[in-house]
Amino acid sequence: ALEEGLSRSWDRRKISSLLSRSWGQVAQETYALCEQVVKPQAPRKRSFRSRRLKIAVVTPYFPTSSLPYGGHSAYQTVLQMTDSVEIQAICPIATYPWQARNGRQVDLDYQPPGIPTTYFRYPAVPGLTRPINGRTCEHRLLPLLQRASPDLVLNYWLYPEGYAAARAGRVLGIPV
Predict the structure, then answer these.
(1) Which residue, of 6, 36, 123, 166, is most buried by count of CB atoms within 10 Å of its CB?
(2) How far apart are the C-alpha atoms of 144 and 94, rounded to whole Å?
(3) Pairwise CA distance, residues 84 & 126, whole Å
């Protein structure tokens, strides 16, 4: 089967057209999923029906300057959602020792157009701190989520930022 698949001539444009979606479509799907997650929570939380749904997006992959940004899927998706929901982006940035020495810094004051964004650093050392990076990130994320007081946390990365978001959400009673 592998040999057959590799030797076959594929129509890449046709395949791409069958599988492609616009940022607007991705945003609609994401919003629908967020509503499904929050609806069961509504009786316990204040009703968001009288106001827009409030979502905190936790992701390390968000624009950190006005320069072109390669992995901007989270930004493009939530940017499309800003007409329907209130978005607050919270971006954990792992800071490695050599970044400080080499002057590689992230502009923590940068604000991507259209989305209020808070960046924060947490210390990390490859290999050495990996097992505790999630807890370190959680420690710094928890007060920011508490201040944002979202109805839902939308996360775009598994570990350590997603782990931190899930733990902080559990502490605050916010679905993630």
Answers:
(1) 166
(2) 16
(3) 39
Report whether 172 contacts 90 (CB < 8 A): no
Under 8 Å between Cβ of 87 and 57: yes
Write out pLDDT tens, residues 112-141.
889 999 999 999 988 889 899 999 999 999
3-state SS record for the chain: CHHHHHHCCCCHHHHHHHHCCCHHHHHHHHHHHHHHHHHHHCCCCCCCCCCCEEEEEECCCCCCCCCCCCCCHHHHHHHHHCCCEEEEEEEEEEECHHHHHHCCCCCCCCCCCCCCEEEEEEECCCCCCHHHHHHHHHHHHHHHHHHHCCCEEEECCCCCHHHHHHHHHHHHCCCC
**Measured between alpha carbons, how far is 115 from 75 in angstroms, rounded to an integer?**
8
Residue in the structure block whose two tokens are 């989270």: 74
Q: 150: exposed, middle or buried (C-beta count within 10 Å: 0-12, 13-18, 19+)?
A: buried
| pTM recorded for the entire structure | 0.79
